[in-house]
C-alpha cells in the first residue's frame, strides 16, 4: 500500500491574513458557461497495435469539442479518463474530466480562503475551465490521473529523494522510489553521501560504494511499469564529481553498452524491449555528474582535482581534471550518459539555502530543489497567444499565468504525497513549476529562427514575463493566505534571487516591436515582485521550470514540446473516421505570409516541403529565410550549439532548469561534446545532456524495412555492412484512361444567378475520371480557360491524384459569381469552383471522406439536427467505428503535392492512394508516425525507441521520448 500522506497532515500552512483574491473575468463570458460556447461531437476511439493487429483500447461515443484533434481526444481518452472501460462509472466526456479537476481546485480554494467571495470563486472556476477546454494550458499528468478520484490526490510529477550512508536509508530509498514509480511519476537523488568503495567501514571492512547499490535500484525500476502502461519508470541518479567512485560511476552505462554488443554478436535479442535486454544493468536511470566551478576551472587550467572522503571530507586521491572530464565526455559520446549538472550555478539561484543545498533533480532535470521535495507542473500553449498581426499577446499571457499559478498553489492545500518527508517539505516550501510548450512553432509563425538573436530574445522575454508574473502573484497570495513556512529563515536569500532575475531581465536586448512589448510587461512584473514581495513575502519558494510536455503537449495539440524546436516540417494527421494523412506543418504557411510571400509562392513552397521534407532550393524562398524553418531532425537540423544558446537565453528566468537534450549527429566527436559541456557551464546553464545519434546499440535503428539492424556505431565496417539510411522507393505515376464508352453525369447549376453545366465521367469502378465545365453566356476566352482547366483536372485524376485533394484545394475559394444556388445540397457557394467541387465530393466521395472535409448533403444535415450525428445508420444497425490508427499507403508522384486551404490552414498533402495505382497500393509504407514519415522522406534514420503500447517510433521530447500515436512517454509529464 502506498505510504500516502494527506494534505491535511502536519506542516499545515500559515493562516489567512488578507481578504481573498478578487477574480476578474478575462477569458470566459459572463452568463454563459464555457461549455455552452462550443460545438461538441461524439467520437469512437479504437486503438490498435499496428504490428500485432491487437486492439489495445476501445471506447465509443466519447464527447469532445469539434476543434480538438483526433490525436488529442485519443490520448486524453486512453490516458486520463477514469473508471473501468465498459462500466457506468467510466468517464466518457471531456466535460466530466475537466469538471473533476476544476471543481476540486475551486472547492479547495474556497475552503482555504483564496477568494474574496463566492462570486469570485465561480469566476475562477469558469476561467480555469475555459483555459483548459480551449487548450491554452494543461496541468501535468498526475493531476489528470488522480484529482477528484478515490485515489490519493497526488498532483506532483517530479520528486527528489534523499539517501544517507546507512543500510536503513538505502533500503528506504528503494521502497520510496518504487511507490513513486507506481503512482506514475519519476524521482531523482544524489548518492554522494554514501561512502566510496575506497573507504573503510567501522567494522574494518571496505564499503560497497554507491555504484553497487545502484544495481538494486535499477532492477526495481525495470520491474515497475510506472503508471501501468502509461509510462515506464523514470529516475535520475547524481554523483558529485569529487566522490572517490566518480570514474566507476561515469563508466557504468558505457561498459554496459560493450556488454550489449557482445551479447548481440552472440545471437541474443538485445533490442530495446528484447527478451535478453533485461540482463543489462543501469538502463533505467539517467545519470548525471554534479560538477562545481572548482572542477571546471581545473579543466580549463589543466590542473589536478581532489576526490574527497565522504566521512571526513579529506582529499584521499587526486586526478587530472582534464582526464576525468575527457572520460565523462567519452562515456556520453558512447551512450549519452552521464549528463552534467553545474552545482555552483544551481545553488547561486537557490531561494532556500538556509534550509539546505540543492543536490539533485528530477529525472528530466528541470526540477531542482531541496531533498525530499516535490513539484507540480503546468504548461501553457504559447501559440494560443499569437495574435492575428503575428505579435505575442503579452497581456493575455500574463493574465493566464496569474490564473494558473493560483490554481497550482491551491493544489498543494489538498494534495497527497508518497512519503511524510516529501509532504512536509512540499507544504513548507510550496514549489511550483509553471512552464510552456510550442515555443518552436511560435517562433516559426512569427518568422523568427530558433537559432537566431531574434528567436532567443523572444524566448527570453516570454520566459521572463512568465516567471515575473508568477512571483508577483505568489507575493499577492502571500498577503492573503501567508508566505510559505520556510520563507522567514530564507527571506534575504529569496529576495536576492528575485533581484538576480530582475537584473537578468534588464540585460535582455530586444530586436523588434513584438519582443519589446513583452519585455516592457516583464520589466513591470519584476518591479512589482520587488515591491509586493518586500511587503508580503512569497507564497512559493519556486515558480517555474521548462518541462518536456510530452503527453500534455499532444493534449493541447501543440506542434512542438517544451522549449524544443520543431521536430520536422512534415507530420502525420489523424482523421475523424479513421486513417491519416501527411500534412506540412500548419505554422509554415503563416510564417511564409508573415515574411511577405504571396499566396502562389506559399503554395509552391509548401508543395516542395511536402515532397522533400526540407526547404533547401524551395521555389521563391530566399536563402536568408532558411533558418526560420530549421528543425531538430532532417537535412537542415539545428547545430548543437543552437540548442545550447536557446537554453541559455531562457535559463536566467527560471526557478528550476530545462528538460532538453542537445542532439548531435553520429559523426560528432568527443571534443565536440567536451566543448558543449564547457560552453554550457560558461553560459550559465544549470544542466546539460547530450545524445549522439545511434550511439545506443539497444536502440531500434531504422533500416530499409524498419527493423533493428543492431549496427555498431563504433565500427566503420559494421556501419558499411548495415547502413542506417533508408532506401527510398519512388513510384512513377501511371495514367489510367477511361474506357471509350463510360457512364457520365450532367448537372446543371446556378451560382449567384450565373448558369452552368458540368459533365463528369467515371471509370468502371465508379471513381471519377474526367470533368467538363461550361458556363452560360460566356465569351470565347473564358470558354477556353474552362476547357483547359477541365482537361488539367481530368488528367490529374487519371494519373492518380485523389479527388479529395482537388476538393480540399478548390472548396472555399471566393470570387464572383457567388451566392445562392439552385442545389438543395449546397444552398450557398463562395464561387463556381467552390460549388463544382462540393458537388463532385457529394457525387463521388464516401461519407467518411466527406466528413473529414466537412461536406454534407441536405439529408445528412437534417439527420444531424434530429439525432446529433451526420452519419447514416448502416443496414446492420451498427455504428461504424472511428478507428484511431495510422495506415497510409505510399503516395504516387502525382499525389505528392500538398494543398493549402483558403484561410491559411494547410490541407492534406498526401491522402490514401487510390487502388487505380496498383504499384502504390500493393506496397504500403512502413510509416505510422511523423518520425517514421521523416525517415521515408529524407532517407535517414530517426534514432528513437519504439512505443511499448502501439509499436510506433517515438520522438524526442525534452530529455525523454513521447509517442504521438498513443501518448505513452518514457517519463515526461
Automatic annotation (TrEMBL):
Is Disulfide bond given among the entry's keywords? yes
Which SUPFAM superfamilies does the entry link to? PFL-like glycyl radical enzymes
Task: Give, as one word, the top-level EC class.
Answer: oxidoreductase
Q: What are the alphabetically sorted keywords of the record?
A: Cobalamin, Cobalt, Disulfide bond, DNA synthesis, Nucleotide-binding, Oxidoreductase
Q: Where is the TSCPD domain?
A: 740-843
Domain of life assignment: Bacteria
The EC code for this enzyme is 1.17.4.1
Ranges for the Ribonucleotide reductase class II vitamin B12-dependent N-terminal domain?
A: 44-135
**Keyword Zinc carried by entry:** no
User: Can you state which reaction this protein catalyses?
Assistant: a 2'-deoxyribonucleoside 5'-diphosphate + [thioredoxin]-disulfide + H2O = a ribonucleoside 5'-diphosphate + [thioredoxin]-dithiol
Q: Where is the Ribonucleotide reductase large subunit C-terminal domain?
A: 156-691
* InterPro entries, alphabetized: RdRp_reductase_class-2, RNR_2_N, RNR_lg_C, RNR_NrdJ/NrdZ, TSCPD_dom
Q: Which cofactor does it need?
A: adenosylcob(III)alamin
Q: Its biological function? A: Catalyzes the reduction of ribonucleotides to deoxyribonucleotides. May function to provide a pool of deoxyribonucleotide precursors for DNA repair during oxygen limitation and/or for immediate growth after restoration of oxygen.
Alphabetical list of PANTHER family matching this protein: RIBONUCLEOSIDE-DIPHOSPHATE REDUCTASE, VITAMIN B12-DEPENDENT RIBONUCLEOTIDE REDUCTASE
Family listed? Belongs to the ribonucleoside diphosphate reductase class-2 family.
What is this protein's record name? Vitamin B12-dependent ribonucleotide reductase
Source organism per entry reads Nocardioides endophyticus
> Which taxonomic lineage does the organism of this UniProt entry have?
Bacteria, Bacillati, Actinomycetota, Actinomycetes, Propionibacteriales
